[in-house]
Structure formats: C-alpha cells, structure tokens
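Co-fold these.
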Amino acid sequence: MSIISVRDVSKDYLLGKTQVHALRGVTLTVERGEFLSVAGPSGSGKTTLLNLIGCVDTPTTGVVEVAGRDTSRLTERALTDLRLHQIGFIFQSFNLVQVLSVFQNVEFPLLLQGGLTRAERAVRVQGLLEAVGIREYGRHRPSELSGGQRQRVAVARALVTRPALVLADEPTANLDSQTGQNIIDLMREMNRKDGTTFVFSTHDPKVMAHANAIVRIADGVVAGREPVGAMA
Amino acid sequence: MLLVDLQVAARNLTRHTRRNLFLGAALAAVTGLMVLLGALTAGIEGSMMESATTLLTGDVNVGGFFKITSGSAAPLVSGYPRVLAVTRATVPDLDYYTIRGRGWAKAVSDSASMDLVLGGVDIAHEPAVRRVLQPVAGTLDELARPNTMLLFQGQAERLKVGVGDVVTLSAPTERGVNNTVDVRIAVVVKNVGIMSAFSAFIQADTLRGLYSLSPDATGAIHLFLKDREQANLVAARLREELQRQGWRVMEPDPQPYYMKLFQTVPSEDWTGQKLDITTWEDELGQFKQFIWGVKVFTGLLVFVLMVVIVIGILNTLAIAIRERTREIGTLRAIGMQRRKVLWLFMLETLLLGLGGCAFGALAASALAAGLNAAAIGVPEAVQLFLSQEHLTFKLGFGAAATDVLLLTLVTVAASLAPALRAARLKPITAMHHIG
Ligand SMILES: Nc1ncnc2c1ncn2[C@@H]1O[C@H](COP(=O)(O)OP(=O)(O)OP(=O)(O)O)[C@@H](O)[C@H]1O
Ligand SMILES: [Mg+2]
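Predicted complex below.
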C-alpha cells in the first residue's frame, strides 16, 4: 500500500479579496521507501503540497491519504497523533523553540511520544546531533547558532522519532554545499537502512540528483514525474 | 516531561522579563494589600473583641431588669448570690466569673460633664481587667476603696480632671429623683477603643450606694467559659435551668443591655424581676457589625483590584500568544496536542501567579511584622474606631495562604480564555504568522 495518496487535490488561499489557486488538481502517489524530490519554480505550490501531506493544512477539494488514512476523516486529535508518530517535518524556516536548548529541541518529539527512558532518549538525540554534525552544540540555544546549524537541528528533530515518512521543505536551501551534502547523505542512509520514505522539495539540481524520482510541479499542477536515471 | 514543561514555562516568563515583572508586581501588590488589610482587620477585631468582652461583657451574661412600675426599668439582678449558685452548678465548664454593677450617670466636673455607662467593679476579683487596662496615672488597686472611679484618658481630658480630683455622679433612679455621689478619680487608663468613649467604672459598693441597692443586688454576672464557642449552648441551658427553678427569664434578644434598658423593657407590661441571659455576641452586636463593615469595604477594594489584574492578565497573555503564534504552530505541527498547549500556557500563568502572590504575601507579612515592631501610634481620632493605640496587625498563615491561593486561582482562571485561543490555532495559520 502506498504511504501517500493525493487525489485531485486543490487548494485555494484567500489573499485579501483575491483567490490564489495554489494547487489546482494534483494527483500523486508515493510508495513506501521512496526518496522523492518535488521540484518547481518559486510559488509553484511545493510548500502547499507538503503541508497538505503533513496534515498541517486541509485541502479545498480532493483526498489526501497518509499511511492509509483519509485525513479528512480524522479528528484534530487523531491528526495530531498521526503527525507525532508517522511524520517528521522539516520546515522551510526551521521553526525551533527558542527557549529550549538544541538538545531539548531535538528531544521534544520523543517527550511528546513518551515511551523512551531518559537514557534512551539521550542516546538517540546524541546520535542524531552527531550525525548532522552539531554534537558539541547540544547545550546552546537556537539563537546562538548559524542558519545552517539551525537547519541541522530541525533535521535532527524531524528524524528523531524515526518516522515512516519525512517531509522536508527545502532542507538544504540554507546550507553550504558540503553541509547540504551531509544532510542528504544522512537522509539517504536512513532511507536505505530503515526504509524511511522521504519527500523533499528543492530548487537544487545537485540535491535532486540523489532522489529516486522527481515530481515536477508548476503553477499548481503536476507537470510530470520522472525517475532520476532518465534525467541524466 | 513535567520538568521540561516547567522549564519551558519558566523560560518563557523570563524571556519577557519586563512585561511579566510588571504583572507579577501587580499580583504581588494586590496579594500584599489583601494580606495587610486582612491582618489589620484581624488585629482590630482581636483587640476590640478582647477588650470589649473583658470590660463590657463575659462570654455569657446573667443580667436582668427590675421594674417597680411597668413604665420604668433598672438593670438589676436582685438576690444575685442565689442566681450565682444555680449558675455555677449549671455551668461546669466555667473558667471564672465576675460580678458587675450596671448603671448610667452623668459625670460632672468643675468645668464639664458627660454621660457615662457605668460598670460597678470589685477590682480584687477582676483578674482579666488588669490585662486589658493600662493605667497612665494612679493604680488599679486604688479602685478597691469606696467612692472611687476609673476614667479612660479621653474622658479625663474631656472632664479636665486627673487622679485625686473629684467628680459628681448624678444618676436617675427608679423613683424619679436623681441620686448623686462624689467620687475621687483613683486611676486613669489608656483608651481601648470605641467603648472608652461611653463607659467608665466605679467601685461596686459605690454604685450600689448611688442607686440605694442592697448588697445582694448587682447588674450582671459575667461568665467566662473555657470554650467561648459554647456560649450559645450555655446560655440556652441557663435559661432553661433558671426558669425551672422559678425565675422569670426573658426571651433571647440579641441586643446590648443598655438598648433594652432605654428602648424595649420600659414599654413592656410587667413588674418585678426578670432575668436576661445574653452572650457576648448579643452584647457586642454593634462591634460585630462594625467589623463586618470593615470586611465588606476591604473585600470590595480587593475585588476592584482583582478585576484590574484579570484585565491585565488577559491583555498580557493575548500579546504573548500573538508573539508566540509561530512557535505554537510548530509545536502543534510536530505533534503536540491542543490540551498540551493549553496546559503550557496555564502553567506559565500558574508559575507567575504563585510567584507573584507568594512574594506579595511574604513582603506584606514582613511589612506587617515591621510595623508591629515599630509600634506606630494611631491618631487619636482613629483610635476609637480601630480600638488600637498602636497599629497592630494580626498575621495568620492560613489567611495569607488563602489569599495567595485565591489570587493564583483567579490568575489561572483568567488565563483560560487566552490559552484556549492559543490551543485552537490551526498549525498552518500559526506557522504562516509573521512575528
Ligand atoms: N497562507 C497563504 N495565503 C495566501 N497565499 C498563499 C499562502 N500560502 C501560499 N500562498 C500562495 O500559494 C502559492 C503557492 O505557494 P507555495 O508556498 O506553496 O509555493 P512554493 O513552491 O513553496 O514556493 P517557494 O519555492 O518560494 O517556497 C503562491 O502563489 C503563494 O503566494
Ligand atoms: Mg516553499
């Protein structure tokens, strides 16, 4: 069964008095274990699509199914649970909790989930901080970090619960190419080892090159889906 | 998790230091004021009630009225030794008792005169009076001699007399003539509140002489119980027993005896002796009303301040939520339930409320203790009202804790609506929010 099934989805925003059609009839299926890139020019609707899949927004029309559940039929509480247990989200603008340390930010979803002991959590968090290359910044506050470092914290926070699905909105946009490469490698490894599904938007052709497939969207519709091999 | 919650809440509080300090200080101020006013009221009540019961009434009074004609009345218990014997047998939980003459006279000095409610005391058998009355001139022992009188400072000043001076007491009697007696001022004592405006004491036999009473007549027997709470029960039991043994006993009527003497009893259609059993609450109804008035007044004041505080909290939290909309959205997006958001916001106000209120209560307690120690004099005009010469606060841990809890509760309750609003934000609208 596919982990994501988006059918005939449209999303309109009301911007003042004008309607903005951010998505106009998108259909997309993502299988478990895919490493999928969503590409398209600025304003094409990438973030909107990821938000719908991530259950933080609801479509104007159409059906969004995540992990086999029709999201329009779930209560707010069930949706929150779905986000907590199935989905890891890397936001375009980090969105870290300013009053918590880097360590605590990454640990937070585990605390919300409950279940792990303090020591287990520490091992998990420390391992991820190391993997994204900010092991020594655990005690710092987000405000003391550079943009790239903050992005890595956001990545670690999204991965810490080992979700089935990770959605990443331009995960490397704020990083230098070396760090960006590290993060892609980390995601790639999780994908290979645990079978975690990744869907990420990007402008960067080098990043796209790591994907299994690329979905191109333009002006709110899917322009095409191509395996990466075909692109080369 | 709770630890992290507390940490988040505490850090969010310290992040907006100025705003939260302001709110915390306001809470502290209101709590402090509440504690201070409460302690002051308790102080007034304590000193007023202690001196009033000691000087004017016992816990239970066995008094009565004697009427020669149905249109007159005298505050008398005739043949009191027999009444006393029955009383002592009926009230085993008696701590001690005093025998008081009751009267009413005009005191006339060389230069002035004033009306006084008189108590006839046998000072040798009045241990508690010594606790309450502090002589400024003369000694209380002098009051044991015949034809002596005790005045409060204010009265002495009004009559322009001092210890050793003589005043004439002129009292209307049952027979319609005014009896007079010259008494020497044996002792002048410090004022003890409102009662020092209208009551004074003379030696017991002198009072009997003034009214031509026999030695076995007195005004009332004041009973002091081991447990004051039992006053009503004891009074009821006494009424029943005295009635059973043949005395005529008046129906309970919660008024001080001098009100009955001047207003109700003279218009009743009977003659001879009737006993009247009252409690300290009956006799001190006006004092209680006064205390109640003070409490209502302070209560209103605190209520108004609380409304202001609630508005402040609503405003502050509304601002806080606007500022943190993005953060709330993020937390919701990574899987935080609504009730958790609610909890975090309320925890924040709980910490602020508890901190501010506790600080206020502590500061107020320290201030009150300091003021007590400083023994600040109360202006004479207010002394009568406050029953105090020095500002005295009576601090109670229970009362202060109640104030703290109450105000914290109000604070948290006030945060409920803004916190609910924060919890209801859709994750996406929250994240789009700029700021
Ligand atoms: N909350 C909103 N209110 C109004 N219009 C919106 C809102 N969010 C997105 N839009 C509009 O919807 C369209 C799609 O936006 P979206 O953010 O999905 O594009 P994107 O592909 O992510 O762009 P970028 O590459 O710049 O991040 C844009 O025209 C945008 O202006
Ligand atoms: Mg975008």
